[in-house]
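Data card: per-record layout.
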Amino acid sequence: MDHIRCKVVVFFALFFTVSAEIYIVTMEGDPIISYKGGVNGFEATAVESDEKIDTSSELVTSYARHLEKKHDMLLGMLFEEGSYKKLYSYKHLINGFAAHLSPAQAEVLSRTPGVKHLSRDWKVKKLTTHTPQFLGLPTDVWPTGGGYDRAGEDIVIGFVDSGIFPHHPSFASHHTAVPYGPHPSYKGKCEDDPRTKVSFCNGKIIGAQHFAEAAKAAGAFNPDVDFASPMDGDGHGSHTAAIAAGNNGIPVRMHGYEFGKASGMAPRARIAVYKALYRLFGGFVSDVVAAIDMAVHDGVDILSLSVGPNSPPATTKTTFLNPFDATLLGAVKAGVFVAQAAGNGASTRPHRSYKMVSANDVLLDSSGGNKYNPSDCQKPEVLNKKLVQGNILLCGYSFNFVAGSASIKKVAETAKHLGAAGFVLVVENVSPGTKFDPVPSCIPGILITDVSKSMDLIDYYNVTTSRDWMGRVKDFKAEGSIGDGLEPILHKSAPEVALFSARGPNTKDFSFQDADLLKPDILAPGSLIWSAWSENGTDEANYVGEGFALISGTSMAAPHIAGIAALVKQKHPQWSPAAIKSALMTTSTVMDRAGRPLQAQQYSETETVTLVKATPFDYGSGHVSPSSALDPGLIFDAGFLCTTPGIDAHEIRNFTNTPCNYKMKHPSNFNSPSLAISHLVGTQTITRRVTNVAEEEETYTITSRMEPSIAIEVSPPAMTLRAGASRSFTVTLTVRSVTGVYSFGEVTLKGSRGHKVSIPVVALGHKR
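The structure for this 768-residue chain is written out next.
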């Protein structure tokens, strides 16, 4: 984090400067979720695994006050009042606090008895009209819960994001046949809009708070653009909330056209907002941890985080041991399902021809091009309206579009202001990684992303346009026609793994060794997703001032999973987060809509985007299948950390407040609905345990397949489980040949009553 220069005033008007930063401190002593007694005067508050904390009980509130008092006493004992600032006390999921300190104070604190760990704060970043139909929700899922107007009933989804635009129809409480009543258990607060004094909550939005103490202490917070309230100044938070829990049947209207009707995955679910991300700088972990801690305190059922670190903290030996991840582990232990992002048309005027005019050839005077790049078509005042009117305006896609200082939205507005029939935006140079998404336009327009086709059009324009000896245009003769506007189509090749989607393998430490736990977990829609947008939102230049946005990223995939998890939770309210995760993963599909293996986008050697056969490192267990997840038949109800080679058991205890259990012996035996071995030597046998969650006894046959370099065997070949019963099976992998690349396969359990679950298998063979 950048050093912040703070002025400190002392007596006699003496001024001096101290370099101060934000630190997250974890303390000896258990947080509320794992405190089993032992402190005189305070009874145990620990919950059973997957059980929610009763934050209203006197036992919990008194122990919470005790922890906060200890934090305050420690700081007050060590440092002079006014020389530091405590930002948050963390009490429910981790025992610690965030404080603004000088490096010297941090050094003193790190050596103080009772302090387990101290780390400097770090930043995090922000990592659909037709997806409900694509996922089969209206026909296969919503009817099982009473229809769309009951889908997600009484499930609270908490969103740690950039806030919400409460006036959007996707969040209106009157867009439902049955009014929202008081929630039976949620205890969160609702802030008022400081400008209007009106509450952010309305029944649909059930909680709304913002967290910015670290951002303020770091000098990054600007109240004029960031809003000191849950108001979304970015657009991202409104977009993700509407994907998961937005109202059903909301018309997506832009520029006078309707692009379909939007719905969240669980349209009846309640929305609880925990704003901790901001437009210009993302967010700070200490603010995000405070938001998560409060969300669990308030009683959310599902937590959606479209957020990830700019880079992992370098203060622990493993990438998954830090206050942020420890807080998420605590949330899961408290019974909260966490969905986290992995790493990010027009009108019809058919078949009439128009002349094309290049922006460079219609400048009002040459001086305009000195201040602006006229080919960007961002400034209508520098172009000659008489020459543009009624014609197609030809513009160039420069680096300004990549940098964000130019936008396709502004091109369309410029063309419309000048009376153009439409516009063409040509890409003459493209950098690897440049992503081109379609953008709704107020007039007909096209972006030509293929450089060779762009050059062909430019050559055609230059050949047909006659000029005088000074290069000035005498006559525009290039022509183009405007065809039908685009309509949304559910392609049979969908789904595909998008280029921006994070890939495995999962790294366990800063030597970038692979962890024996498969990531990502699951694939969900995240490319070109229509959803609500904040009118204040400036995160996407093409959607400034709009009510909806069509954007892409793993940030869009996470709320899909959160909303679908809400539907599973509604049907199975007693299921643990691990059971819900298992149901989603084991029933996912590795085939596209045409019945072919999933494909993944990747760069070729020539830096063009191509499609290749996808692997579990691309899609995890597969693409989510909501209807199957409601009735999986079997679940894998899941200490992974303790079995990681080289891990410090004391460090595990520091972050999780749980001692290591070494019975699993190896991380591959962590009972996850996937199987990964990054260093397979000779033969290794792994155990998995399943539970029958169906209502009747069922017999399962167990089959396996693996690529040739690794042999695979399963035992037993079949097993029968009564309703509620659990049984184990083993998977044995043997190296046949060392290839230097991972081998992929799967284990499938097929039931006699129609249930079927599969888990992906990945292994890398090594020599003895």
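Known properties of this structure: The mean pLDDT is 79. The radius of gyration is 28 Å.

See the next section for split statistics.
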